[in-house]
């Protein structure tokens, strides 16, 4: 036995979040990875098409652009849940360990819930209107992009609600290595 005092390890993983929230985060990472690869292949196809005109396809650029928009929206909830969004950390250092710290976290999460619900509602309204307009090359309805926005902002609201109930626990940190596979 060692003379060092035994302390419980502090984990940055969101183990205190319910299973469905952890599964939602896994699905968002998976979907984000798919869209990332679509961006990559769309851009690479464009580059190859410049040098081999026989395989040039105008839709490759549109696939890459639309995938970038979808990636941005679909990972919004994940980034909110993992604190990958912009945060003012000055208050964290000043209020650490005080009751007001938990109040500040709850307030920030409530603001995020309200914001995400408002954006999800607007996305829903845009989905209703966007079926008539289509993209130039693929002729995909613009409403599909707003479906991704709706999913992302709804997910952000869910993650923020979970953060309200976990405000007095250590927050998970965004760990880039977990995105590597």
Description:
- Residues 4-14 have low confidence and may be disordered.
- The two termini are 36 Å apart.
- Helix 2 runs parallel beside helix 6 (143-165) and helix 5 (99-129) packs antiparallel against helix 6.
- The chain is built from 6 helices and no strands.
- It has helices at residues 19-51, 59-74, 76-81, 90-95, 99-129, 143-165.
- The radius of gyration is 21 Å and the shape is elongated.
- The relative contact order is 0.16.
- It is 64% helix and 0% strand.
- The chain has one domain.
- With 181 residues, the chain is mainly alpha-helical.
Per-chain topology:
Layout: H1 19-51, H2 59-74, H3 76-81, H4 90-95, H5 99-129, H6 143-165
Helix pairs in contact: 1-2, 2-6, 5-6
Task: Provide a quick synopsis of the model.
This protein is mainly α and 181 residues long. It is built from six helices and no strands.
């Amino acid at each position: 036995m060692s003379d060092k005092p035994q302390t419980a390890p502090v984990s940055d993983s969101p183990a205190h979040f319910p299973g469905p929230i952890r599964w939602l985060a896994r699905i968002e990472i998976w979907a984000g990875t798919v869209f990332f690869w679509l961006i990559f292949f769309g851009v690479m196809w464009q580059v190859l098409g410049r040098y081999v005109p026989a395989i040039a396809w105008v839709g490759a650029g549109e696939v890459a652009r639309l995938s970038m928009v979808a990636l941005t929206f679909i990972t919004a909830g994940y980034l909110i849940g993992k604190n990958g969004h912009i945060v003012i950390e000055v208050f964290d250092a000043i209020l650490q360990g005080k009751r007001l710290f938990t109040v500040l976290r709850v307030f920030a999460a409530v603001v995020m819930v309200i914001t995400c619900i408002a954006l999800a509602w607007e996305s829903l309204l845009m989905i209703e209107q966007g079926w008539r307009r289509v993209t130039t090359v693929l002729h995909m309805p613009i409403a599909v992009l707003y479906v991704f926005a709706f999913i992302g902002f709804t997910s952000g609201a869910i993650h923020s609600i979970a953060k309200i109930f976990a405000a007095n626990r250590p927050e998970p940190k965004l760990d880039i290595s977990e995105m590597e596979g």
